[in-house]
Amino acid sequence: MKASGFFINTLKDAPADAEIASHQLMLRAGMIRRVAGGIYTYMPLGLRAVRKIEVIVREEMNRAGALELLMPAVQPAELWQESQRWTQYGPELLRLKDRHQREFVIGPTHEEVITDIARKEIKSYRQMPVTFYQIQTKFRDEIRPRFGVMRGREFIMKDAYSFDQDKAGLEHSYQQMYEAYGRIFKRLGLVFRAVAADNGSIGGSGSHEFHVIADTGEDAIAYCPASDYAANVEAADALPLIEQRGEPQATLTKVATPNAEKCEKVAAILGVSLEHTVKSIVLAIDANAEVDASPLTPQGSGGSTPQIWLLLLRGDHTLNEVKLGKLPGATGYRLASEAEIIECFGTRPGYLGPIGTPKSVKVFADRTVAKMSDFIVGANEAGFHLTGVNWGRDLPEPVVADLRNVVAGDPSPDGKGALAICRGIEVGHVFQLGTRYSQALGATYLDESGKAQPMVMGCYGIGISRILGAAIEQNFDARGIIWPEAMAPFEVVICPIGYERSETVRMAAQGVYAKLLEMGIDVILDDRGERPGVMFADWELIGVPHRLVISERGLKESQFEYQGRRDAQPTLVEMTAAPELICAKIRAAFEY
Amino acid sequence: MKASGFFINTLKDAPADAEIASHQLMLRAGMIRRVAGGIYTYMPLGLRAVRKIEVIVREEMNRAGALELLMPAVQPAELWQESQRWTQYGPELLRLKDRHQREFVIGPTHEEVITDIARKEIKSYRQMPVTFYQIQTKFRDEIRPRFGVMRGREFIMKDAYSFDQDKAGLEHSYQQMYEAYGRIFKRLGLVFRAVAADNGSIGGSGSHEFHVIADTGEDAIAYCPASDYAANVEAADALPLIEQRGEPQATLTKVATPNAEKCEKVAAILGVSLEHTVKSIVLAIDANAEVDASPLTPQGSGGSTPQIWLLLLRGDHTLNEVKLGKLPGATGYRLASEAEIIECFGTRPGYLGPIGTPKSVKVFADRTVAKMSDFIVGANEAGFHLTGVNWGRDLPEPVVADLRNVVAGDPSPDGKGALAICRGIEVGHVFQLGTRYSQALGATYLDESGKAQPMVMGCYGIGISRILGAAIEQNFDARGIIWPEAMAPFEVVICPIGYERSETVRMAAQGVYAKLLEMGIDVILDDRGERPGVMFADWELIGVPHRLVISERGLKESQFEYQGRRDAQPTLVEMTAAPELICAKIRAAFEY
Description:
- Chain A is α+β, with helices and mostly antiparallel strands.
- Chain A folds into three domains: 17-237 and 421-472, 2-Layer Sandwich (BirA Bifunctional Protein, domain 2); 253-401, YbaK protein (Alpha-Beta Complex), CATH 3.90.960.10; 490-590, Rossmann fold, CATH 3.40.50.800.
- The first copy, chain A, is built from 15 helices and 31 strands.
- In chain A, strands 3, 7, 8, 9, 10, 11, 12, 21 and 24 form a nine-stranded mixed beta sheet that branches.
- In chain A, strand 22 (444-446) and strand 23 (452-454) form a beta hairpin.
- Chain A is globular and about 90 Å long.
- Chain A starts with 20 loop residues before the first helix and ends with a helix.
- Chains A and B meet through strand 1, strand 2, helix 2, strand 3 and strand 4 of A and strand 1, strand 2, helix 2, strand 3 and strand 4 of B.
């Protein structure tokens, strides 16, 4: 491709409403243009990247045995009524009426349509397993679309759906998709993690999210750099940080800690590290309580007296509500009110502790706290703490539970090293749906004994347009985007200095351009005759990973100037060696 | 691809509402499945054909220098209001409201969006010419969707839009697209014609339709098999069928022709061929008449006396209303009423003629009639005709005009042979839009002198999904579809007889399958273990163009059985020669 026959329109500044780097850079590079809120046109530059992603996704789906089809964007309401999602789905579901006043939706997802196809097409166990996929434009009417293609309203998805006879079949189909997803993100040149995830609203059990790692990601992920372990921080297992509890060394002592309601303050006053302190969190469990949306909001107690729980965490740790919610009997927990605390502990929050509490209080210690010795807790007396506290000697052994969020440096639950914490952008999701949709829509097959059984389904999504944004969030600098080769709009740009003026430069540029094309490299020759500063700024902003500069000065020495997009400095290369050098670099990038 | 890993689901019968062959066959072959009226899922088999069409379209668009982008399906109402089409477009425009009650449409076409992009991105004459295209799902809310993908509501289009500085630039861009369209339909292996067309509602001037020739087509096309000439029958030039008028031979004679109000009857009574008769059509032209939607409906005359026109056509010819409408002064013409005719001609219709009519009657003779001699007309007396009529001698020379529809055998207007008439299915359309949209939306650029000028636009559509139906209408038989190689879901099918039973058959089948794959052939191996009858019927219905049958009997002679989809009989081929034979046949099909 020659730049003169392409459409390049870079901008100095991004519109003010572009909040994050990928959105700003895609607009500035001219990859997308806004048509309406959350609705974009992919300009030729942006679409080249989209298509490269699609090719890789398609190849890996096919390799995994999935069959491509194409379902309609406009779906009849009847199918959504059958699945109950017509009422369950919120205003994100864009509904409309045709000229005959029949109701339709613009599909945000296709479980209903594919299940309708399956119930009509699949009659026998012999027709399974089968996995269908499509790459298609979808619509989700986000209340506040933002971040460009990262959370747009109209977006491009790859969605796949597997149909199996039973749970074992589903698990096999799921595993195949899981592996295909790994290959896809690897081939795309992205640093990513497959993260065990709780299921969202789709229902069913067993799911993983695929996250592209980026500082700007919405989700916190705990992972082990030495292994494949990864989980949302909320779901990651927190192991005890102390292997074996030490013998008591200190005497139980009450010390004055005026105005020290936080562990940090206590540690500072006593001149010890925060890791010797233990914080107390008091919960109230109302009898017959309903699950509340935000259970950590203190509330007045109900009619009957609530049960009081005391949670003990190390001073530097934080409570994990997801784990807390899974403790037996925790349904309907809430933070105890100050009145309840004073009634139970005889003092106000800030000086609470497990020693001398009423027997009715149930004490839970986090796994780490349970292994501590000579630790510090509140004295249940305002302005005082107890030091040298030891389990067994000074208070009974506690109920032990995993109560805290993991932190960087924690041992990995798989025993293979220490956890790191990073942020991620979800670009893929694999789900074991089970029979949620096949039962709702009556999608059954006849098993070997001729009995009708519901098909067992999985669903598997990749946000194609979202990958663009995520890849940029992971790969950019002050000058612009740094595309991984696999999805770069162009792999190489040739920047000739004095293209219009110098016959020598023009000939050399056209020569190496032709050679690179012949080698199958996706190269663009900047024949616009722009000044070097403009050319370099454009292509650095656009993020082409390899650049070859051709100048009269260099040609005198038979040399080109090569610079990788991440290189600090250019390198001189022999003219004749340049194509092979670039080819080798690109080949290396594609090896995975 | 192996059939066991694919999804094949053929039907014995098509649903009753499938009216035409392509719709029936696509359903029976399992290429599409209905989701709602005019809304289909492309099953894996159908999508393979779609994707092959898309690849060819994309290649030729790129070759013509067009740049691919992707505009959104959901478009804001504001753009349609700017172009006035929000009110002009009928109920085919699917309108909807988002959660904030803002109005949108699902785009049936993208003139507004692309013009919006152009006005924001193109500032200078230096940025043109440029042609953008996309391949995208569109929606048109047809009142009565029918014929499957031929007139669906949701459909796949390639639409392109060119932007030029002036009319000359537009004509160049138009020509490039015109040529690209020719290459596309040729490469697809379709018999087609580019037909000069009147513009439809889009407005502007200069347009061609591309028609796939098929007996079931909606449009009648006159074309010259010896040249590229083609036009809609309504627009085709009808040349005189007589080169030079003969000298009068016969005497003007009044003959009795009782009950002969039609030329056919007159010719029969007189024992002459229809080509000697001339029919009279009487029109009334009302003064200051408005153009009427159906002008050939007789109406009572208005306040003032209408002008009477007498049109003369050869007995076997038919009047062309489009041509009539273009005669100077024809605005507001209508068929004269019987009262008007009797008042003017003194007799009732059926026996009218140009001799002895009042001077106020304007006589128009079709080009052929004007060259006739010794012809027959009505005598303006009930039950009588005149024979031996000659121009100049018996009546004054007429005003000559092209008034008739062409018929098969007419000389081609380009002088290169005789016209044939066929029926066609419109699959493409190229338009010179001009400044219709750039003026409405204010899409201007600065010319070389720095003056703002409206961009001059062209638009170019191809109905990707419609091509599927059209290709089938052109290529099918009683057994099913006969795909052109270029868009066949598979190019070759290997049908092994006794695949599960016979190790020899299995080995041979897998061997030739591997060999064909290696040669880059798109081959499917039917490893389902079905009986030969089922296998053959399936693949003939699906329309795979080449078939290789492998049986134990053949293998004894080291032979396979080859049969092209159009071949009446199979041919025996040496096992070792089979791959090369098939490869050669497919290569030949792709040569264009």
